[in-house]
Structure to design on (208 residues):
């Protein structure tokens, strides 16, 4: 069982990491600014759901395989980079005026939820990060290390939801103020497309 000191230390570390600029929170920020706060929150829940997959990978030992297998790592990062390129193309081709309708539909929110899941799951570095990060807060003498890792993952999940949702709401409010202009919409889409391409390149050239 986790001690109170461990829970506090891990929560602080997880919060700092969640606020640190990275592919996931940048992804939330751009989607919120482009599609509205509800879309950003939907992406956040998708990213958090992806963390469940990575947690399972760590517990089952799959993350260790990704860490040592060049093929497994390469396949995942290529898939992830390709998906980011796909999103970039969609952003560059998006037409002004379609933003509010997309954010208002439940089907559209499910789309962004799935987008968050794919974005997170296809990044092999998340599994490797979990493999390296979680065990540092596990005390073997406290018993049941699997339960401890699952508890830590749950804390990370909650912290991610809270921090990324806050980012989504703030970015969404800013986006709502400028999206009344078709020219601003085009500009934001091009900025988002450029960011997606940058993230794709960064993921594609990343090493274990």
């Amino acid at each position: 069982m986790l001690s109170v000191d461990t829970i506090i230390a891990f929560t602080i570390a997880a919060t700092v990491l969640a606020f640190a600029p990275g592919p996931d929170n940048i992804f939330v920020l751009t989607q919120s600014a482009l599609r509205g706060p509800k879309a950003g929150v939907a992406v956040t829940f998708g990213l958090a759901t992806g963390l469940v997959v990575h947690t399972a990978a760590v517990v089952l030992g799959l993350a260790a395989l990704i860490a040592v297998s060049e093929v497994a790592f390469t396949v995942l990062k290529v898939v992830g980079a390709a998906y980011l390129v796909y999103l970039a193309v969609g952003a560059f081709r998006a037409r002004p005026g379609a933003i509010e309708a997309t954010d208002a539909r439940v089907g559209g929110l499910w789309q962004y939820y799935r987008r968050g899941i794919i974005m997170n799951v296809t990044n092999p570095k998340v599994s490797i990060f979990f493999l390296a990060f979680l065990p540092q807060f596990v005390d073997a003498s406290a018993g049941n290390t699997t339960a401890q890792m699952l508890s830590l993952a749950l804390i990370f999940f909650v912290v991610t939801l809270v921090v990324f949702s806050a980012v989504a709401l703030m970015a969404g409010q800013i986006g709502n103020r400028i999206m009344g202009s078709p020219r601003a919409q085009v500009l934001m889409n091009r900025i988002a497309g450029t960011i997606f391409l940058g993230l794709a390149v960064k993921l594609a050239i990343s090493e274990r």
